[in-house]
Each structure stands twice: as C-alpha cells, then as structure tokens.
Write a structure and sequence with these properties.
It is elongated, with a radius of gyration of 17 Å. By secondary structure, the chain is mainly alpha-helical. The chain is built from 5 helices and no strands. The model has no long low-confidence stretch (mean pLDDT about 95). The chain has one domain. α1 runs antiparallel to α5, α2 packs antiparallel against α3 and α3 runs antiparallel to α5.
Length: about 150
Amino acid sequence: MLTILEFLATVCSALFAGAAVYINLVEHPARMGCGTKIAATVWAPSYKRAAVMQASLAVVGALAGLLSGLLGGGLSWLLGAALLGSVVPFTLWAIKPTNDQLLEPGRDLESAQTRALLEKWGRLHAVRSVLSLLATTLFLILLCRV
C-alpha cells in the first residue's frame, strides 16, 4: 500500500509540475505575445480548464504524500506533501484575487491594467511551478533510495 501511495504522490506531483512549467514557459508567454486583448481572451478558458486538472492533481498528490509519510515513509514524504499541497492555499490567497480581477465582467481587455494583471499572474503562477518542482524532485529522490 505504501509503495502505491508513494508512486501516486510522485506521479501527481510530476504531472502538476509539468503542466505548471508548460504554462509558465510556453503557453502564457505565447498568449502574451499576441497582444493584451487576445491574451486576456484566451487566458480565461485556459485558466478554467487548467484549474480543475491542477487542483485535482495537487490535492490527490498531497494526500498521497501525507499518507505515505504517516504510514511509514517518514518525514521527507510529509515535507514533499506540504510543498505540493502548499500550492492550494497559495493559489487561493495570492493568485485568486488576480484571477477575479481578470474575470471581472466588463473589463477592458486592451487596457494597460489588464496587461499588468496578466504579467502579475504569470509571476505568481511561477511560484506554483517552483513549489511543485521541488516536491517532485524530493519525491523522485525518495523513490530512488535504496
């Protein structure tokens, strides 16, 4: 059971990290290069689709890591679970206010304020990428221990 939980935590963390890094290095820069109006227009549906996937991966991965630590995997699994799980409160506390502003009805999608919000969103999202990469790295190291 412990092996399955450790594997699940690692896979969820790696999938989350891969998606987050892709968003930061590929998707968001590409849409920002298309002008503010297009970037804001395509950001909303992309955000809504990614939120469901990434939230699920973060929660399942963090719970699997937590259970791994509690069932004998040790403190390192708990640390990895905390790193991965921390993306959820960070998203709610730090990113959601920016998301809410970007999703405001009637927002001028061509404004400098909208561009600034999109740029801020990219920087905030990078924190999620770093946290999930740290968790994934730790989980992989733990899996490879002999």
